Amino acid sequence: MLMIYPKLMLTLLVLVVRADISDGPLPEYVKQCSRSDPQLKSCLIDSLHHLRPYLRAGIPEIELPTVEPFHMDELKLSLTGGPNGYTVRLRDLLVRGASNYTVEDIKLGSDFEAIIRMPALILDAQYTSSGVLIILPASGNGTFHARFGNARALVRGSVSTHPRNGKTYLNVDNLDVQLGVKDVNMRVRKIYNNNRILTEATNLFLRENGQEVLKVMEPQLKKKLSTLFAGIVNQIVRNVPVETFLRP
């Protein structure tokens, strides 16, 4: 299980929150819900789906940049053991596909949970490796591409409420995302000065060990994405009251 971005159930819910706090007309990206609606959960899910094109384009009025692509700095992976173990560094990662989500279920409260599906997450990065791979010295650099197909994200966390000026504001206290990926496809290009043998050996290793490589990525992805997404959410919810997105 891996963790990722897909942009993220609570982030999306909070964006629905961002109605105009000056009591003017609602922004076009907001689909407002009513507390008294017997189908409130369905309304909230529809509101999150309503946001998809705006997340892809970005929402300048709430200082939200486009989520396509999503940028990460780097991942360091130790893929084989021993003194000459095969290690990989991925830099300048760009992740695409997170905004093409479907919310299957949500459970809201001080503890929240959501299930989100994405057809695919696409990752591109600069690739550097060192050590020995399948008896071959494998130190070099190039580009890395991965496609994580049929992704299912389980988002869990907790929020606290903080009254201020007669309104209720939220704070995300912790956030965790786990991603199950059914189909994994990884490959490298233009590595080792275009050494064909090493390139083919590396791609063979990635084809046969895709799920294992994904598991090695998980702890770093979990930490980086949880910290980053919680920061994005809190930047919004600390300034936007709950009352602006959920009418009586």
Automatic annotation (TrEMBL):
Pfam families reported for this sequence: JHBP
Name the UniProt key words of this record, in alphabetical order: Biological rhythms, Signal
Residue ranges spanning the membrane: these are none
Question: What is any one GO biological process for this UniProt entry?
Answer: circadian rhythm
Top-rank taxon of the source lineage equals Eukaryota
Which GO cellular component terms are attached? extracellular space
Q: Which InterPro entries match?
A: Haemolymph_juvenile_hormone-bd (IPR010562), To_sf (IPR038606)
Which segment of the chain is annotated as a signal peptide? 1-19
Instruction: Spell out the family assignment given in the record's similarity comment.
Output: Belongs to the TO family.
Recorded protein name is Hemolymph juvenile hormone binding protein
Q: What species was this sequence derived from?
A: Trichomalopsis sarcophagae
Classification lineage: Eukaryota, Metazoa, Ecdysozoa, Arthropoda, Hexapoda
